[in-house]
Write the structure tokens for this entry.
Amino acid sequence: MRSNRLIAAVILVAATTLPARVHAAPYEPMRNHITLGLGVARHLSDDFEDSGLETGGLGQLSYRYSLNRSWDLCIDGRSLMSGDEITDDTGGFPIEVDVTHDASYFGPGVRWSSGEGSVRPYLQANVFFVTETLRYDFGDISTDADEDGAGFGLMGGADIRLSRLLSLPLEVSYLYGKPENDVSSLGMSVGLTFNFTPLR
């Protein structure tokens, strides 16, 4: 939980201070974009209520290919991981069990961006192949279960130009999937995007 709060604090500080401090970098559209992102997200369904797994860390690795100055094709990999420690004393003595839940999303999408300044708002939509993994670890024994399904994602935010080749996206995301449980979530993240190959 402390790491989630730290990530949330970093995102909040970046969202409120960076746009005012970033000088307008010359806009030069690029063809290829690779983004690494970190954030926090919370499951929205009752399936995770009072489970200790409601909130987790959000990771992102994505690639975008620009068709023109406004439209991009995307391929995204995203993962929402949460964990908790529970105590089971059914057998007469307590056993500590570490529980880890991971909802992974992978699939294509399309993005629309606006403007040519140092801050470019965007909207993005993806369809996803979703994998849900639940893992239990107690001592040297571990067990896990996987379920697969389909889902989608809706994202929006602003890409802040730091230099000719680097930008910083601030994003809010809604992810949906129901492989076994309803893993729908609402999250926010900050990232670093590497932009290369000029768009001609």
